[in-house]
Design brief:
The chain starts with a helix and ends with a helix. Helix 6 runs antiparallel to helix 7, helix 13 runs antiparallel to helix 14 and helix 15 packs antiparallel against helix 16. It is mainly α and 537 residues long. It has 24 helices and no strands.
């Protein structure tokens, strides 16, 4: 830490227990040698703590920071002092860079022990060594150990030993004031540090017991609360002037208050009323930003939900959480509603690109049904927009099925013509072949009664499912007629009756059997044609 590395006592090359006369004499001597461009003699600048290139102005500046008792005491808290005969060997090892030896000397006198007259200086000096940052210890661990040792020292009655060595009898202070002096300097350096953070400092202090703890930590509460309150007021002002952009102000508020709120939560328990109050106020304003934005942009529900999640992560009180949950449920419902509309709309627009198959008709109806049911719940069965969507689905499925039935009817007719008269009306068959992407010959060759029965069975199954979907009145009339026609055709195809076949002229047995089958196909085709004519009327 700079508090150690740039300590005024280090720059002048003295221990913290140096007298006023020692400081003045050392200052003059160092300045004279530097002005004469002579090297400075070995002193207590302890070079292993870091490079120290001292100049005249450095010595003058350091000395000026050791004039008052308050300044001297503040600097002494981050430097070494000789308070016991075992300290001198430790200083010798420290100057020589033998850090392990130093740890051994002071560690032996402090580990697992209470502060006493004989080891008080070891507690303070070992703390300074840890805070210097020269030990091969993780930064956070070094900070924790350094602060812990120093506060134990400053909590003890033997902190007065250092005070009496550094200041004169006119300087009056308490252990609590010394602790605050120490911690405020730590805080000041950490606030400008990239290595440590205030949250880490608070985390360290939370695990320690010392008299100034509550007073010091309380100083971290007022500032963050004031910053959060100020940020809330700024957000309210912006939102009221321009609620259409409230999402921006809500996110700004969240980002601005993240650090101070994190600091508060590190200090205060979640049950603390001050923390609950400021957290819920903050969450409520962020929620209001979400509400205002959603009211202006109902199609941007995802952004509102994302902001609600941020508000929920802050809220501590049940009422605040319930309000956030209620609005989130409302927005989620609307987002689902919009998504359902877009889904059905997209399906309707893309229907013309689908191939005409039973599978596509079935999948289309199946995928649209749950979305239509959601829209019905939201809008009501009689709502014009809902009926338009539902009727659109029904009509497209109906048209696809009837096209399939018409195609199969045509194929059976032409199959009969081929076998009976060896003639095919290509103008009727070719469009079907093109729709299915096959040749006319293969299409005619594949026509048989079993395939046709299967098609009608599957078509009727899909058609019946449409009955439970809502549709406009005239479409319902048409649907009922077509359903009746399809059911009649299904029964005709699956009724086991004997179809009268005209007696052919005498010919080979095989030929006779084939002709009877062809007459049966022709009669069925005629029945189908009649049914379709009725359905299209």
């Amino acid at each position: 830490m700079k508090l150690v590395e740039h300590n005024p006592y280090r720059i002048v090359g003295l221990l913290a227990n140096a007298t006023r006369r020692d400081i003045d004499r050392q200052t003059r001597r160092c300045k004279q040698l530097l002005e004469a461009q002579s090297p400075l003699p070995e002193d207590y600048s302890i070079t292993p703590l870091g490079r120290l290139n001292r100049k005249v102005e450095d010595i003058t500046g350091a000395a000026s920071k050791l004039n008052s008792d308050a300044d001297k005491m503040g600097a002494a808290l981050f430097w070494f002092y000789n308070g016991h005969h075992t300290d001198e060997p430790a200083f010798n090892a420290l100057n020589a860079g033998r850090l392990e030896d130093v740890l051994g000397i002071w560690g032996k006198r402090t580990s697992g022990k209470d502060v006493s007259d004989s080891n008080a200086s070891a507690f303070s000096n070992l703390s300074t060594l840890y805070l210097s940052g020269v030990l091969t210890v993780a930064h956070e661990a070094a900070l924790k150990e350094g602060i812990s040792l120093k506060l134990k020292f400053l909590e003890s009655a033997f902190a007065r030993n250092l005070q009496s060595l550094v200041t004169d009898e006119t300087y009056k202070t308490t252990n609590e004031e010394l602790q605050l002096l120490f911690l405020k300097q730590i805080q000041s350096e950490i606030e400008g540090s990239k290595v440590y953070s205030i949250n880490k400092l608070i985390k360290v202090l939370e695990g320690l017991t010392f008299s100034a703890k509550e007073k010091f930590l309380s100083s971290f509460i007022t500032g963050p609360i004031n910053r959060i309150e100020s940020a809330i007021e700024v957000s309210i002002g912006k939102r009221e002037k321009d609620n259409a952009n409230a999402i921006t102000y809500g996110n700004e508020l969240y980002n601005t208050t993240t650090a101070p709120l994190k600091l508060l939560t590190a200090i205060l328990p979640s049950s603390d009323l001050k923390l609950i109050s400021i957290s819920d106020r903050l969450a409520t304003e962020i929620l209001q930003c979400s509400k205002d934005y959603f009211d202006n942009h109902p199609d941007k529900g995802d952004a509102a939900i994302a902001l609600n999640k941020k508000a929920k992560s802050i809220a501590l009180g049940k009422d605040a959480k319930d309000r956030i949950d209620k609005h989130t449920t409302h927005v989620n419902g609307f987002v689902t509603f919009i998504n359902d509309i877009n889904f059905v709309k997209s399906k309707l627009e893309g229907f013309s690109s689908l191939k005409t198959t039973i599978a596509n008709a079935r999948d289309f109806e199946k995928s649209c049904r749950p979305k239509l049911m959601n829209l019905k719940d939201k809008l009501g069965a009689e709502h014009e927009n809902y009926l338009d969507f539902s009727s659109g689905v029904v009509k497209r499925v109906m048209d696809m099925i009837i096209t399939l039935v018409n195609d199969e009817t045509t194929l059976f007719k032409e199959a009969f013509q081929r076998y009976h008269a060896n003639a095919i009306d290509y103008s009727k068959v070719r469009p079907i072949a093109n729709r299915r992407g096959v040749s006319v010959e293969s299409l005619i060759a594949s026509a048989d009664i079993d395939t046709f029965k299967t098609l009608i069975t599957e078509a009727l199954d899909v058609f019946r499912k449409l009955k439970t979907l809502d549709m406009v009145a005239d479409l319902r009339v048409r649907y009922n007629q077509l359903l009746s026609d399809l059911e009649s055709l299904y029964k005709q195809l699956h009724t086991d009756t004997k179809t009268p076949v005209p007696q052919p002229k005498p010919q080979p047995k095989k030929k006779k059997k084939k002709k009877a089958w062809l007459w049966t196909i022709l009669i069925i085709a005629i029945i189908i044609s009649v049914l379709l004519i009725i359905s299209q009327s």
